[in-house]
Amino acid sequence: MHILLADDHAMVRDGLVPFLERVGPDVTVIEAASLDEALTRGVGCSDLALAILDLYMPGMDRLAGLDRFKAAFPSVPVLILSGSTKPDDAFAAIEAGAAGYIPKTMRGETIIGVLRLVLSGEKYVPPFLFEHRDMVRGTAEQAEPSLPPGSPIALLTPRERDILNQIVDGAPNKVIARALDLQEVTVKAHLRNMFRKLGVANRTEAARIALMAGISGNKASSGRPV
């Protein structure tokens, strides 16, 4: 399986490649520094599974480049990568057909989860879009993005939500226990309850539901009750 990473900054590519390679055991990353190079390299790849395109690299012309890429590879999901966290940029990218929008400030562990989500056929909406929506609605006091109607995450306790955030970050039980000042056996008990409420069988499925709800991890607090 090949993932195409196109960004005109070599340092950005160097920083992302190790995380992209962890998405799966058979992942090979193809690098490009412009849209034209991405198109050329994509043509030579028979099993291109995902493309990540920088919004402002040469040839993109903002989202006109996304249209060009999708016309050439209609079955390949595309994630837009950008240093911008402007809601207008993210909204425009998703409305133009991108499978998701990744800010360059996103943690590497979270990016792994996002890529797995998109490879499973889902879309990823960054949490700051939910926050922007809440501000527009006059509910900026909400600390977390609104959940979709009927979301099973609403059934979780505050502590289970803390643990879910840690799972999205890829933390194992020992790390979660240290971060939340819990015993590891307590973490395991919370996980069993969480999986039951979410209707999932494992951590990967739980993280997938969290990402679909706009939860990006790194929001845990050790001051909540067990």
From TrEMBL:
Residues 149-214 form the HTH luxR-type domain. The modification 4-aspartylphosphate is found at residue 54. SUPFAM superfamilies: C-terminal effector domain of the bipartite response regulators (SSF46894), CheY-like (SSF52172). Gene3D superfamilies: 3.40.50.2300. GO terms for molecular function: DNA binding. Residues 2-119 form the Response regulatory domain. GO terms for biological process: phosphorelay signal transduction system; regulation of DNA-templated transcription. It holds the Pfam family Response_reg. InterPro entries: CheY-like_superfamily (IPR011006), EvgA-like (IPR051015), NreC/VraR/RcsB-like_REC (IPR058245), Sig_transdc_resp-reg_C-effctor (IPR016032), Sig_transdc_resp-reg_receiver (IPR001789), Tscrpt_reg_LuxR_C (IPR000792). Keywords: DNA-binding, Phosphoprotein. Transmembrane segments: none annotated. This is DNA-binding response regulator. It comes from Magnetospirillum moscoviense.
